[in-house]
Amino acid sequence: MARKKEIDKDRILDAADAVILESGGRFFTLDAVAERAGISKGGLVYSFPTKDALVAAALEREMSRFSTAVRARAESDGGDSRRQLLAHVEQALAENDSLSRQAAFLMVALVHAPDMVGPARTFYSHLFKQFEPDTLRGREIRQAVLAMEGLFLLRGLGFVDVQAEEWESVLKHACETIIGNY
């Protein structure tokens, strides 16, 4: 009796990441991902029935990776709300450009599928609970976080050409705003 082949979902997600990074998302198709993963399209669809499901899984994995890195940074220094916000900005500073583009593409790819954006909503809900938007200080922090996240999406999607120095400047300003308002 032949042994049933098992499909490695991480290998598929790695292939999806590679297709996104290599093409900027322009050639992100199930066929391209299956080919890159070295499996049939049927094998891919068995694991991820739709392109949305594949994108959602890739986004969830990326957000989990980022959140784990942020938690590790935050816990090394107390883990309070201030530290969590700073860890978020510090991790964003540490990320390379291709990871930012990949994450931005994944987020935007799911805009048309509101039932699939749960992980992103949870991620941002947690981020925005780290400050009090009803206070002047909280509003200052919110503006800095929104500037950072907005530039992240604009830069990641290629809508604006942001040099590394400008990106770092926005993130450093966010750090200074958080430190100055906590």
TrEMBL record:
Alphabetical UniProt keywords: DNA-binding, Transcription, Transcription regulation
Protein name (Swiss-Prot/TrEMBL): AcrR family transcriptional regulator
Keyword Secreted assigned: no
UniProt xrefs under SUPFAM superfamilies: Homeodomain-like
Residue ranges annotated for the HTH tetR-type domain, each copy included: 6-66
DNA-binding region extent: 29-48
Record-linked Pfam families: TetR_C_28, TetR_N
Domain of life of the organism encoding this protein: Bacteria
InterPro entries: Homeodomain-like_sf (IPR009057), HTH-type_TetR-like_transc_reg (IPR050109), HTH_TetR (IPR001647), TetR_CgmR_C (IPR041479)
PROSITE patterns: HTH_TETR_2 (PS50977)
One function term, GO molecular function aspect: DNA-binding transcription factor activity
